[in-house]
Amino acid sequence: MHIATDPWVWIAAILTLAIFSFLYRENPFYRIAEHLYVGIANGYAITFYWHRILVPSLFDPVARSPHFITKVWLIALAIIGALYFTRFIPKISWLVRIPIAILLGYGCGASIPRAVEAELLRQLQATIITRAHFAHWDTAAWAIIILIGVITTVSYFFFSAERKGALKPISYVGIVFIMVGFGASFGYTVMARISLFIGRLQFLLGDWLGLIR
Amino acid sequence: MTPQADSARVSFWTRLQAIDRRWIYLVLAAVVIVPLLFPFKIKPKATTPVQKLFNYIDTMPREKALVISIDYTPDTRAELQPMVVALLRHAFATRRPVGVLAMAVYGLGLGEEALSQVAAEFNAHATNHEDSIINGEDYVFWGWTTPPLTVMLGMGERITNVFPVDYYGARTESLPIMRDLRNYDDMGILVTVAASAMPRSWIVYAQVQFGVHLSCGITAVSAADFYPYVNSGQFTGMLAGMKGAAEYEELVTAKMNKEGLDWGLRNRGTEAMSSQTAAHLAIMAFIIIGNIGFFATRRRK
Questions:
Q1: Is B186 on the interface with A (CB under 8 A)?
Q2: pTM for the structure as a whole
């Protein structure tokens, strides 16, 4: 057993235990750790935004650029960006729509064509069964299962027609696929939460108390 | 069975249904702690997506870089940090150039920690300059900038324009590694290690436009969401959760041992697998007992 002598390890360990204490019940130690986390996280982010974004991309170029037009552009864009803060002044809060509109326009223009390609066309392509799938029995089986899963699941979300006749059993199979999907997601979620718990215990038992390597 | 015995049985199940959740926490804590203190041997066998990523990195051209995007924050460190460490060991063991960037500002420290750790592991056994892993020559840590859309599109043109200085403040244009690492064309693969939807953004902006090879390491929570992209070939393999990390660690350890780099390095993902297995068994038992209790009490009502 080799207990850590590094004060930062002790601080991290005590804060971890303070957060875990919530499992017993709400208490002041948990509250302190929670507020400390929010404060430090915000302070860290603001510092980085200042030093890594505002200083090199705005303040320095405005101060040092030999081109007048560059300075004007940067200052104009900074003013537009600063309009986000008008939300806090009710009389002129409508001005916040300007940067939001610019960002939405830019974001949609850049995203929509690429998203259609990446999310729709490529995914549709992946459901097509080709001769190559039949090279091995398992790839063929998975390709057929995926095709059936996609068709039946989509049919479950087909709301333009009443679910009767052929659509009824097909959409029922779709429900089975959806439930299997939920089950897989739940299983993975359990695995994830346990992993995070193990990670903290590795720190407490190993890095802090030295009980494990 | 007598009515009294039946009543006692039902009252047991009723009591079990109303058990204080803190007892369950306690049992789970014990189930996780005991195997950490007294681990039993588990050797994770690589699943197809993990093997696929390993094979791709292992066989890609020597001059092509492995780029890792740190798209997670410290809260998911337990699952994702072992992946980054294993990927870096693989790249350094096979002498491939490495570039690391962070899309999450809180991930900067994690990226720096992983790079320092793995570089130190290799440098501790280096006997000359050729064996050493040197910042700016063998790897570069570009750091963080925002917004992600601009970064992803900009890196397709010129990385040094997006990251004029690296994490340590050096001009990226002056770094030797950047002479052959100009944009996506010089990358063998970009692995996004993420606890968010960022891998999807990499596909939409970097892959559709520039055709870069992508893979991802993700938290187990989001694994089910990303399997379709593995199936469609948009991701070359995938590491899902701590188990994915453990599988990759095993492959890298076997590779390093084969290359004569048997240094007995610590594999945090693999070490956690006995606790993970015990916890899963306990949760399965809870689910089965809970369901029996539910049906027993419902039948009584």
A1: no
A2: 0.91
φ/ψ bin of B156: left (φ > 0), alpha (ψ from -120 to 50), beta (otherwise) = alpha
Interface contacts A/B by beta carbons within 8 Å: 129
Q: Is A190 close to B280, i.e. CB distance below 8 A?
A: yes
* Chain B CB within 8 Å of residue A107 CB: yes
> Which residue segment(s) compose the domain that A151 sits in?
133-213
For residues B213 and B136, membership in a common domain is answered with yes
Residue B180, pLDDT score: 94
Per-residue CA distances from A202 to A198, B77, B80, B194, B273 (Å): 6, 12, 14, 21, 12
Answer whether B219 sits within 8 Å of A199, measured CB to CB: no
Nearest CB to A198; choose among B106, B276, B283: B276
Is the pLDDT at B181 greater than 90? The verdict is yes
- Give SS3 for B139: strand
Q: Once rounded to an integer, what is the mean pLDDT over residues B273-291? A: 94
Q: To the nearest whole angstrom, how far is the Cα of A165 from the nearest Cα of chain B?
A: 30
Q: Enter the ipTM.
A: 0.89
Domain count, chain A: 1
Q: What is the pLDDT of residues B55-78, one digit of tens each?
A: 999 999 999 999 999 999 999 999
CA atoms within 13 A on the CB side of A208: 18
Range of the domain at B12: 3-38+276-300
